[in-house]
Task: inverse folding
């Protein structure tokens, strides 16, 4: 094969790859301690990244990373039990998280920052675990995933004081990882309605459900872009977890990461140009960021 | 001479259950075993070491190594399946690296046990016997090896790599150690964290030596010199057995080096993953290289998957479909795959039997909490090395992974097979008055 044919072949292969993935600068490594991390979330009033980290063999703590100074501090300094998946209202007056308050038992906690009040939702006695929640941008409601006592798992909604519980979904399947859109009028979530975990979208009142992904592997943990036009999510492709981005209607699904290790827990930077995520590289689990500006620019054209 | 009698239930060494009883009844005479018989037992030994990897808390078999994609959704769960290197055999999509390495191990899909609770099943898994008030606590597999083999080159014969003795939030597993033989045959506990930092609880009893000093050999030597000056032969005896073992270990250069993971290449340590389980498996490989005959790696100290002050075991009564894909399976997939690759590349599988299993499986039917409970009637185990023929599935479960449809493999069979491979055959077990029952898993070899 002469060099021109070789070039043509390389160009063709690259073009095919480019059609379904994003070319960007190499991901930037944000943390370096290598500990297990999950559930990334940006604050709305600053460039602080909050996430859960396996601090000791027996304790997952919420940690706060200031991206400008690099300073890392415990979010709840005195927390002595596992805390995961924090989310803030847009005005930062409320935040919600999941607290491991008993043997195989977690509860929803809401903190009213200004009033200094803490609200607690105990989902039930015995073994009972809430895993995933989302707080509405206006700080008026919380949606969380919890089993329905029959093998299924529904999405439930409460007010910000964690009262007036009502079911948003009513299915025979497992619904999980709800996420309010930036305007609060939509919810993205993952569900087994198709037989495996795929991403769905519905109105915030539970109506107008719409399947966004239809893939034989796991699709989970949707994360809305700040402008509400796109959703990042984790997809298990050929045995490897990668981050994908799609339009909010499910179209234009593109692979963002390409790493032999596990990439998961996507979270948009407030500027909408970068996605932060947890990646296992060489056996270490750290937070990385990657630019999606190319994706944004292409969509605008 | 002991008459071996008829062979109605052969073990790998050709000794029948009846022969075992006869040998056991003649126990005082076994000291007079002929040289030929002892030589025969030695010939049957296939392994210098056993690595017993304990997935404490009990992983779901149907979501990992025994998926049932054609079962109803409330059984099969939400995970897809992927092919393995064995034609027609599929695993869950959660363990792709292990699916790609089935040419390195054999899988049993027909394990059963006789207790549906963790401590009880744990004791079955470690001893082959039940636990309970008033019941004699049998010695664990490692304790039998410990008594039979004795220590090697300053290293304890039965090492447990774990944060602590396996337990649930209520109690310890009775069968973890020497049982009624006493604590002299308990495991020597070594802790290894996610960055490979080694901690030896027994050292805390030895005159202020801190575990960090293991990695700082010059400091350690200073400490040991001080102790040597202070300790006379008489005072050495007042230390308990574990402290003595710790002291002996630390005065042995080879033993100390075996605990030092910084001697591994960065790539090797990365391959196992920066998790306590991953680094513990790497440490286990080093201990096997140092000829420790029985190394037990426990996934966790506690069974509980998500409870305060516990360390994330496999007991997924809740969040099974979250914890498995997000935490447990990726850790297991990476670390166990790295171990198999590493052991294979170093030729260690020729002389080491690797066994990986939990104490039971989990309910094939999804529970009311959208998760899975305990299931003693069917689970899996992984076997590699020491003559195990890889690339095969032994046994099978029914269409919903509820029960074996082939010969059930019991904990006693697991124990007998491990011990036989180490040369502790039915005659040797009779001498020790342990494990009169149990069938060698001949299908593996």
Result:
């Amino acid at each position: 094969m002469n060099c021109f044919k070789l070039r043509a072949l390389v160009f063709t292969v690259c073009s095919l790859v480019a059609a379904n993935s994003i070319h960007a600068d190499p991901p930037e490594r944000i943390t370096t301690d290598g500990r297990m991390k999950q559930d990334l979330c940006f604050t709305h009033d600053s460039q602080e990244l909050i996430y859960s980290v396996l601090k000791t063999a027996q304790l997952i703590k919420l940690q706060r990373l200031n991206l400008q100074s690099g300073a890392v501090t415990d979010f709840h300094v005195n927390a002595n039990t596992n805390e995961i998946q924090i989310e803030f209202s847009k005005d930062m007056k409320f935040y919600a998280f999941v607290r491991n308050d008993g043997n195989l038992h977690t509860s929803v906690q809401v903190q009213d920052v200004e009033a200094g009040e803490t609200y607690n939702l105990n989902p039930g006695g015995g073994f009972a675990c809430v895993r995933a929640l989302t707080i509405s941008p206006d700080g008026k409601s919380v949606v969380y995933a919890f089993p329905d006592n029959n093998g299924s798992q529904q999405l439930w909604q409460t007010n910000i004081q964690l009262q007036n519980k009502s079911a948003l979904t009513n299915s025979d399947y497992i619904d999980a990882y709800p996420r309010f859109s930036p305007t609060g009028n939509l919810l993205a979530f993952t569900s087994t309605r198709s037989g495996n975990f795929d991403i769905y979208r519905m109105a915030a009142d539970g109506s107008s459900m719409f399947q966004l992904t239809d893939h034989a592997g796991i699709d989970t943990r949707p994360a809305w872009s700040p402008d509400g036009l796109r959703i990042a999510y984790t997809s298990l492709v050929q045995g490897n977890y990668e981050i994908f981005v799609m339009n909010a209607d499910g179209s234009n699904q593109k692979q963002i990461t390409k790493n032999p290790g596990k990439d998961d827990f996507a979270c948009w930077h407030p500027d909408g140009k970068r996605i932060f995520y947890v990646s296992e590289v060489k056996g270490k689990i750290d937070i990385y960021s990657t630019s999606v500006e190319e994706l944004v620019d292409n969509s605008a054209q | 001479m002991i008459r071996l009698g008829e062979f109605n239930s052969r073990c790998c060494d050709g000794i029948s259950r009846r022969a075992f009883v006869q040998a056991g009844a003649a126990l005082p005479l076994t000291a007079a075993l002929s040289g030929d018989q002892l030589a025969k037992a030695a010939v049957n030994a296939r392994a210098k070491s056993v690595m017993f990897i304990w997935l404490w808390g009990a992983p779901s078999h149907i979501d990992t190594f025994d998926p049932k994609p054609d079962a109803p959704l409330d059984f099969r769960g939400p995970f897809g399946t992927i092919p393995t290197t064995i034609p027609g055999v599929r695993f869950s999509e959660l363990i792709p690296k292990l699916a790609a390495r089935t040419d390195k191990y054999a899988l049993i899909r027909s394990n059963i046990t006789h207790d549906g609770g963790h401590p009880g099943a744990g004791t079955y898994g470690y001893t082959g016997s039940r636990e309970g008030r008033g019941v004699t606590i049998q010695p664990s597999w490692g304790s039998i090896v410990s008594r039979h083999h004795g220590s090697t080159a300053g290293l304890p014969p039965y090492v447990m790599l774990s944060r602590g003795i396996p337990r649930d939030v209520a109690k310890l597993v009775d069968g973890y150690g020497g049982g009624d033989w006493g604590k002299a045959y308990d495991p020597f506990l070594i802790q290894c964290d996610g960055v490979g930092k080694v901690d030896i609880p027994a050292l805390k009893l030895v005159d202020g030596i801190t575990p960090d000093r293991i990695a700082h050999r010059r400091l350690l030597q200073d400490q040991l010199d001080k102790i040597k000056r202070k300790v006379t032969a008489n005072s050495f005896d007042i230390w308990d057995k574990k402290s003595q073992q710790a002291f002996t270990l630390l005065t042995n250069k080879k033993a100390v080096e075996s605990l030092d993971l910084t001697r591994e290449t960065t790539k090797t340590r990365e391959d196992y993953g920066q998790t306590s389980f991953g680094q513990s498996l790497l440490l286990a490989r080093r201990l096997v290289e140092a000829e420790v005959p029985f190394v037990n790696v426990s996934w966790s100290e506690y069974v509980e998957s998500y409870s305060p002050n516990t360390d994330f075991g496999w007991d997924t009564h809740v969040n099974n479909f979250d914890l498995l894909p997000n935490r447990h399976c990726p850790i297991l997939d990476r670390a166990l795959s790295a171990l198999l690759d590493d052991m294979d590349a170093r030729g260690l599988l020729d002389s080491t039997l690797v066994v990986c299993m939990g104490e039971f499986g989990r309910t094939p039917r999804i529970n009311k909490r959208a998760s899975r409970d305990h299931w003693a009637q069917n689970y899996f185990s992984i076997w590699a090395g020491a003559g195990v023929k890889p690339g095969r599935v032994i046994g099978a479960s029914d269409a919903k992974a509820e029960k074996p449809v082939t010969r059930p493999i019991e904990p006693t069979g697991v124990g007998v097979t491990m011990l036989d491979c180490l040369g502790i055959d039915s005659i040797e077990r009779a001498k020790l008055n342990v494990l009169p029952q149990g069938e060698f898993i001949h299908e593996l070899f």
Remarks:
- Chain B has one domain: 45-200+259-440.
- Confidence is low (pLDDT under 50) at residues 1-34 of chain B.
- The first strand of chain B starts at residue 49 and ends at 54.
- Residues 45-200+259-440 of chain B form a domain with the Alkaline Phosphatase, subunit A fold (CATH 3.40.720).
